[in-house]
Amino acid sequence: MSVINQNSSLLWKIGLGIIAFFILLSLNPCVVIPAGHRGVVLNFGAVSDKVLSEGIHFRMPIVQSIEEIDVRVKKNETKCEAASKDLQTISSIVAVNYHLREDKVNELYKNVGLNYESTIIDPAVQEVMKGVTAKYSATELITMREQVSISVKENLENRLSKYFILIDDFSIKDFQFSTTFTKVIEEKQEAEQRALKAERDLQRIKLEAEQKIATARAEAETLRLKNASVSPLMIQLNAIEKWDGKLPQYMLSGNTIPFLNIK
């Protein structure tokens, strides 16, 4: 009887152990943080100072929960409406590549939450764009676009860094002005192109005229030198070279026999 009681007690303990094991598994005491993520530990919903890195970790069931946060580089695009210093309306799409500071995701989660793109990034981009473009005229925004981009990026980095959001890359896409201003710019460019073409045509005509004058002067100089080099003796020598040796059979009164110089 004693043996039976001992066996029953042992089976009871084993059963309780199995039940406790399955209860523990159902409470999920282990958590796996995937690559490119960090885990924010919550103690009864309160954010702790501990941040879990990639890999497997243990947590206290019921007491602790884990919030996974992506710390990989992500892209955010924001539509912006702003005005230049000369009150020209500007519309653009600003693309920002960013990532979260890994050791401070708990602070971001505690102060902002997971909707930081719509809560922090989008408003920051719009405010920075408005502040920077207001310092430049519409023409300067076109001719100094690189400088404008650098200024926007620097201001945006300063604004987002206090939320532990770090910028990796930045670009301004579809930088457009109002239809009226765009038409004025196009007409100005067309007028400049026409003026440039007219100037080039004038230069070409002037060059062609100078070339013709130079050619005429060269031909006149060649003719002058040729005429200056011709002498009576050379004329006679040239005639002798062409003479067939026969004297003319008939001569008019007053004509002389060619090539005979009595002197």
Question: Which properties best describe this structure?
Answer:
single chain, about 260 residues, alpha+beta, Tetrahydropterin Synthase, Chain A, 3-stranded antiparallel beta sheet, 7 helices, 8 strands, about 50% helix, about 25% strand, elongated
Explain what you see.
- About 50% of the residues lie in helices and about 25% in strands.
- Among the domains are: about 1-70, no CATH class; about 75-185, Band 7 domain (Tetrahydropterin Synthase, Chain A, 2-Layer Sandwich), CATH 3.30.479.
- Helix 3 (about 115-135) crosses helix 5.
- It is of the alpha+beta class and about 260 residues long.
Q: What are the low-pLDDT stretches, counting only 5+ consecutive residues below 50?
A: none
Determine the mean pLDDT: 80
Strands ordered across the widest β-sheet: 3-2-5
The percentage of residues in β strands lies in 15-25%
Gap between N and C termini: 178 Å
Alpha carbon gyration radius? 48 Å
Overall structural class, as computed from helix and strand content, comes to alpha+beta
- The CATH class of the domain at 74-183: Alpha Beta
The helix/strand series, from N terminus to C terminus, equals HEEEEEEEHHHHEHH
Return the CATH topology of the domain at 74-183. Answer: Tetrahydropterin Synthase, Chain A
CATH homologous group name of the domain at 74-183: Band 7 domain
Query: What's the β-strand tally?
Result: 8
Helical fraction equals 40-55%
Short structural description:
With 263 residues, the chain is α+β, with helices and mostly antiparallel strands.
